[in-house]
Design a protein that fits this description.
Structural class of chain A: alpha/beta
Helix content of chain A: 40-55%
Number of domains of chain A: 3
CATH class of the largest domain in chain A: Alpha Beta
Largest sheet of chain A: 6 strands, parallel
Number of strands of chain A: 12
CATH superfamily of the largest domain in chain A: Response regulator
Low-confidence stretches of chain A: none
Oligomer: homodimer
Strand content of chain A: 15-25%
Strand order of the largest sheet of chain A: 2-1-3-4-5-11
Chain lengths: 347, 347
Amino acid sequence: MKKLRIKDIADGLKISKTAVSFILNGKAEEKRISEELVERVEKYIQEVGYRPSPIARGLRTGKSNIIGLMVESISDPFFATIARLIENEAYKEGYRIIYCSTDNDTEKTKELINVLKDRNVDGYIISPPPGVEKEVNELIKAGMPVVMFDRYLPKVKTDYVVIDNEPSAENATKYLIRQGYSNIGMITFSSSLTQMKGRLKGYKNALKEEGLKPYVLEIDFTPEEKVMVQTIREFLVANPKLDAVLFGAIQAGSCGLKAMTQMKLKVPEDLAVISFDDHDIFELFATPVTAIAQPIEKIAHKVIGLLLDRLDAEGGAAEPREVVLKTKMKIRGSSVVKNSKKYLESK
Amino acid sequence: MKKLRIKDIADGLKISKTAVSFILNGKAEEKRISEELVERVEKYIQEVGYRPSPIARGLRTGKSNIIGLMVESISDPFFATIARLIENEAYKEGYRIIYCSTDNDTEKTKELINVLKDRNVDGYIISPPPGVEKEVNELIKAGMPVVMFDRYLPKVKTDYVVIDNEPSAENATKYLIRQGYSNIGMITFSSSLTQMKGRLKGYKNALKEEGLKPYVLEIDFTPEEKVMVQTIREFLVANPKLDAVLFGAIQAGSCGLKAMTQMKLKVPEDLAVISFDDHDIFELFATPVTAIAQPIEKIAHKVIGLLLDRLDAEGGAAEPREVVLKTKMKIRGSSVVKNSKKYLESK
DNA sequence: CTGAAAGCGCTAACAC
DNA sequence: GTGTTAGCGCTTTCAG
C-alpha cells in the first residue's frame, strides 16, 4: 500500500485533479461543482484513506497549519500545562503545535524563531526572553500573528496575556502585614522580564505604604538547584530579623523551603511564607503553603483564542489586545496570624 | 529583505545552482568541488543569511529532520522532563522534535501517527498506549526507526528503554517487610501496560515469598483527581488492617497522600508509604516520602541515542535492542522501621 | 565544475 | 465542470 497522491484520486474517479483539489479545499461551491460529485469524492477519499501531503501543500501555499510555541522550558510544570491545554484547543481547529524551549536565552530564541520561520509556521505563541524585540517585530511586520504570555516585551505591539502581577504581590504583602508580620523579605529571580518586575514592584508598594523596610534577594536562575538553595540560606542567615518571605516564583519557593528545612527553620513560626504559583501538592507539605495561583486554564484558553482569532482574521492587523487576568491567593497554613493561638499551639 | 533561494546564491556568486546544492549537502568532495569555492560559498551564505527551505527539501527527499515524540501527556512532569532532555540532544544533531500527547487513547494515537507520517517525520519515540501494535508494526515495516520507552508493546519488535519494574517493586515490598510491616497494600492504575503489570507482579512476588496476603487496588486514571482520591479513601476504609502501601505511580501516590491527609492518617505511624517515581519536593512533605526514582536523564539519553543510532545506520534493520535500567530507592521517613524508636518518639 | 532538466505533491490561474 | 500548465524550492542525474 503505497502513498496516494491527488492524481490517484482523480484517476480512480475518472475526474480531474483540479476538481479534487477544489473539493479538498472547500471551494466546491465557489467553483460550481455539483454536490453529487463532492459526495462521491469525499466518500472515495474516505474509502481509500487518502490524506493530502501537508508538505507539498505547504511548499505551494506557504501555510503549514502549524503553530510555534516557545516557552522557557517545556519541563516547567506551568509551561507544560499551558502547552498541553493549547495543544488540545489548537488540535480541534486543525492546527498542530511545535514546541521549543528557549532556556530564556536570547540567542537560542533568535535561532529558534528562524527554525520556525523556515518551517513556515502560521503563528507564534511566545513567552519571550529579553532582547528579542527586533526579531519579534520583524515577524509582526511580515504579517505573522504573534501572541505573548506570562511576560511581554513592552516595545513590541502585539497581543499578550499576563496576570496582574503587581496587585497580586501587593495584596499578598499587605496580607502578611495584616497577619502581623513586619520584616517581610522577597526572594525572586533577577530578571528584567515584566512579570518579575511587576511582582517586585507590588511588594515594594505595599511596604512603602506601611513604612516598612524591604529585604530583597534577587537570585540568578540556574538549573543547579543547590546553588540557589545555598544563596537563599546565606540571605536568611544575613537577615535574621525576617519574619516572613514572599517568593516570586515557584522555583524560588521550592528552593527557599528546602533552605529553610535544612536550617531547621519552622514555617510559619520562624518564617511565614507565601509563594507565587500554586501546585496541588503544596497541600501535602509539612505546613501547607499559601500560594498565588495563576488561572492556568484561562491563560491557555485566552492565548490560543487570540491567536486563532488572528489566524482567521487573515488580513487586517487588528489593534494589539492586552489581556490581564486575575490571580487567586490560596490561603494555607504558612501565613497564619503571627503569634496566633494556632501558631502558639503548634510549638 | 525577501526570502532567499538557492538560485539567488548561485546568481550572486555567478556559479551554478548545482554546485551550491552539492556544497550545502556536504557532497563537495565527492563531486570534486574545489575547497576554494566551498569556502567562498559558505562565506557568502553566512553573509546574506541564506537558509535552505526544509519544506522544499522535505518534499524532494522525503526526509524532514523531525522526530515525532508521543507521550501520554506532555504536562506530566516525568514526560515533560524526558521531552526536554531529548529535545536538547536531538537539537545538537540537527533534529527538531514534534511532541504530542496521546492521553493513552488508542484511537487518538493512531490518528497522531498518521499526522506524523504525513509530516514525514524521520523517526518515532513512543510511549505507547495499548492497541496500537498494528500501526507501529507498519511503521517499522516501512523502515521507520521507532523507539519505545516507559512501557513497550510485547508484540512489537523494536528498541525500547524501560526500568526494571518488577525487581524494583519486589525490592520495595521486601524492604517494607523487613521494616516490620506485614499488611502491605498496593495502589496502582489498572492498566495492561507492561510497566504497571511489572510493578504489580514484583509486589506479589515479594508477598508470596513471605506468605503474606496481597491487598490490591487498581484505579482507573482520570483527570478528575477527586474521584481517584475518593476511591483510595474507600479502599483504605475497607482495609483497616493495612499498615503499609506501595503506590504504583506518582499520581497514585499523590492522590493517596491526599486521601490519607483527609482521613487524618499519619505517615508512617498509621500507614507506611513507598511510591514509584520521585520528585524532589517529596523531601518537603510532612513526612518525606520514600520513592523509587527512575533514572530520568539516563532514560532520555538512551532513548535518543538508540534513535539517532538507527537514523545514522540508514539501511540495516538491526536487531531490536531492549534496554532495562535500574531504579534507585530513595529511603525517607515514610517507611521507617515499624514501632521503631524514631516512630515512637514522633508520637 | 556547469547547465539543463525532471520531479517531489499540491494549488490555482487560464482557456475551454 | 475539465484539462493543462506553471511553479513553490530543492535534489540529483546526465551530458558536457
